[in-house]
Fold these 2 entries.
Entry 1:
Amino acid sequence: MFSVKTIVAILAFGAASVAAAPAPAPEPVASPAAVGLLAVQSAVRMCKDSEWRGDCKTVLVDLGVCTNISGDYNDKISSIENQSSGNTKCTWYIDGNCNGSSYSNQKDAKLQDGNGKFNDSISSFSCTTK
Ligand SMILES: *[C@@H]1O[C@H](CO)[C@@H](O)[C@H](O)[C@H]1NC(C)=O
Ligand SMILES: *[C@@H]1O[C@H](CO)[C@@H](O)[C@H](O)[C@H]1NC(C)=O
Ligand SMILES: *[C@@H]1O[C@H](CO)[C@@H](O)[C@H](O)[C@H]1NC(C)=O
Ligand SMILES: *[C@@H]1O[C@H](CO)[C@@H](O)[C@H](O)[C@H]1NC(C)=O
């Protein structure tokens, strides 16, 4: 599973490699460009049963891009969450192509609650910066 910490570690490693090259002026480890990269993706966890039970998977998506839920999870998700910390917001849609009714609770352990409209019916989602 990807996490923000993993991304930070990868970025820090990349910056360290650059700094290790025989360059006269070493770059700071946390350059503004590296910090900016933290906001380009979001991690979304989805499970076929409520309360994060049953089959689950986590997908890392680019921000601002609509992602269709792939075959075996399409119309089968009963719990879902945006796992990115703080700076992203995801919207879940009933139809493919981010079309149709939408919903944006960032963490819902039981989509069946309330009107239940989004239980076993999410087909696509997109995430953006908040
Ligand atoms: C909705 O979610 C519950 C709990 O995970 C599940 O038992 C139920 O079969 C789901 N589907 C529908 C169509 O209600
Ligand atoms: C995305 O999810 C994380 C973890 O549940 C949460 O801390 C964060 O606030 C969420 N983002 C928004 C915009 O709610
Ligand atoms: C997403 O699903 C819709 C149908 O719901 C389809 O028309 C569209 O081509 C799909 N997009 C991608 C990128 O697969
Ligand atoms: C979105 O849904 C509307 C209404 O059902 C439909 O007319 C339109 O073609 C859909 N657009 C896409 C991109 O799927």
Entry 2:
Amino acid sequence: MIVFCVFLVLCYDLVQAQFPRVCVTEEALKSNSCCPLWKDRSPCGSSSGRGICRPQIVPVFGEFGKVPQYNDDRLNWPKYYFSNACECFGNYSGYGCGDCKYGHFGEKCDRKITIVRKEIRELSLLERKRFFSYLALAKITKSPDFVILYTGDRHHKDTYRFVDAAIYDVFSWIHYYSTKPILRNGTFDYSTNYAHQGPAFPGWHRLGLLFLERQIQLLTGDENFALPYWDWRGEKKCSICTNDFLGDNDVEGFLSRYSHFAFWKSICSGYNYVDSYCLAADDFNQLQILHRKPGANPHAQSPPTFQDVEDTLKFKHFDTYPYNRNAKHSFRNALEGFLNPSDGMDLHKTTMHNLMHNFLGGTMSEVPISSNDPMFILHHCFIDKIYEKWLHKYNASSDVYPENDQPGQGPNECATPYFPCYTNKQLLQKSDAFGYKYSIYQGL
Ligand SMILES: *[C@@H]1O[C@H](CO)[C@@H](O)[C@H](O)[C@H]1NC(C)=O
Ligand SMILES: *[C@@H]1O[C@H](CO)[C@@H](O)[C@H](O)[C@H]1NC(C)=O
């Protein structure tokens, strides 16, 4: 089985997302260009009409290093690393235009598939077992297409070192890298990052899930594979924290040795990143393997309720000024969990998405490493389902994505650090554009 799948992996020269292996050669880095040759030997498959190699037009925060208060390598993504990259036409996509846009398949990318993401308890026994074995495979299979950045100093290119990582760990690392505080006037500003505390939050996570889902489809050859979600509304404790599902844990938070993820290591701590590259790795050494303590946090003893979700869906404004964790009457801020959904005013209550992270505790409650626990996938798919409900309820589209001052979160900035570029506002559209939808479960 494993030999067969590894063979499949090597067969695919497609794929998207970031630090493409072929673009981190000394030569590519020096030329600041990520325009790999497609099968037809032309950059970005241009001879076959798939795409074109062109300068990255990123209009927002000025040139790297020229705006004195912000000097962060991720700003104006991916310009700091690559000033030229592929722009793909039609349904083509991927860093080299060798792949298709999400939801499209085939050599010409003209075959559309819409998959259905189901609640994990709706899966048949076979589907559930398949999900766990695909994850296991993604955790041990080296990513054929991507490498991760491993260096003590993001701001000195000559210190960069790129290393191999497993497919699941590339996914974890993308989240980790986006959550690093942003360097501002030479100090880290912990109130901003690229994936949270701003209007990019729902779309950024949507893209991360699509990335992982597609990587697993490519790894296994199973084009119909869909990530499951966990509808946690109204739970008193964690009903899927059993060894048949996500795993039981002991009082110290160690997962049962008979559970699927008992021996999974977190990428930041496990791979010995220097502190500046993995916030909290030193302080949370015990988190090198996954931990979970559902309900143990006295401020987060149970998940959000049915009413909380209903209330969150009442906000018709996608986001509101000042577009950060202080936004009131904002769907995004209520969904993210800084705003009390019952009144749309109270900013002191931890709710919804944030509450769930805290409720689960352990690895999930440490933002930079939370994505190492597959619970992250199930939780964020449900957050994404609520986002999808909102998009339908208000028939919303890209034009309601607001201009704002959050670095990396402008409507026309690329969701950071994905590759190729999806702008933040592009990610504000209904999921059928990305080839998936959600099952109806418990009336939602
Ligand atoms: C950063 O420093 C510049 C010049 O010293 C100053 O004008 C600016 O207000 C500072 N920005 C922040 C966010 O502190
Ligand atoms: C893109 O895919 C759609 C199917 O979703 C197809 O109808 C359309 O013709 C394709 N576009 C191009 C330019 O190939």
